[in-house]
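Human: I wish I could look at a protein chain and see how it folds. This is the protein in question:
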Amino acid sequence: EKLGMDKGHVYFTSSGSEANETAFKMVRQYHLQTGNPRKHKIISRHRAYHGNTLATMTATGQAERKIGYEPLAPGFLHIPPPYPYRRHPKLTEEEHGTECVKFLEDTIIYEGEETVAAFIMEPMISGGGVMVPPDNYLTEIRRVCDKYNVLLILDEVVSGFGRTGKMFGHEHWGAKGDIFTFAKGMASGYMPVAATVVKENIFEAFYGEANELKHFRHVNTYGGHPVAAAVSLKNIEIVERENLVANAAKMERYIKAGLNEFADHPFVGEIRGKGLLLGIELVSDKESKTPLETARSNAIVQNCMKQGVHVMRNGYTVPGLDNVLIMAPPLVLQESEADMIVDAIGNALKQALN
């Protein structure tokens, strides 16, 4: 209902990793049962995070998280994500978006469209660096997926249920997926619950006689637990009753106004984000956009912690590009608390110059 789907179907699990793993199994079985048995490859993006199971970790585009666990699952490919801050200087944001969509289309063509099952993406890369795509990106991705019969999985584990100032992250860009995955925001962390939501045409592919084995042969012990479901329903009710989605959008504007006072600081490359998922890319040189050294970035994080403000850094993503401060305060954030965040970051940036 919240997704605006006519006849959506839900498979419940207990974590975002499980929700994405479920989606991967679904897309492979779906294509097998709809006359495309070779469609098994799943494309994702560098810097994205999709989970910690073997398959979802393989789909994750953060190399340092995979050290010690290789070889990983076969059948996964990665393409570059949009990165407007570091795009070629001669490209507009829209042209950069088109360039990144072409990475997907070229990969599908080179691999053979008859072998590619799905493309998974976060509407906005979160822990990998708060990377906001150009406005044309998601609609063009949708077009390419439709053209080559590639299912689009939208990983809304982080961005779902108000985090970005919309109920769902994809609403900023006006295109929908074939499959959606949710977790964290469903119950605001009060219960382990997650969901994989599919369109009616995907669900129908799993109908058949018992001896045909078309059913989704996937069991989850705690999936659909009534307590988790009740907590999720109550949480969504509270989010709507207290207008927390609108509050996230309002607080985005308020925090950005405060952070923009530091825009001229030598270490501040870009301030970006949506709703209450915000980032500051730290650089040692504004012109060359050289990433700030890890030790200095980490010192800023620790300084904020000492002031009672918990920010994080996008560690374990790309060696040398762990220079983004990430803020994800609760949706109930008020202006006085936002002031604490801005003040702590401002103080930490000033001290980092010494």
In short: The CA atoms of residues 271 and 330 lie 19 Å apart. The first strand starts at residue 9 and ends at 13.
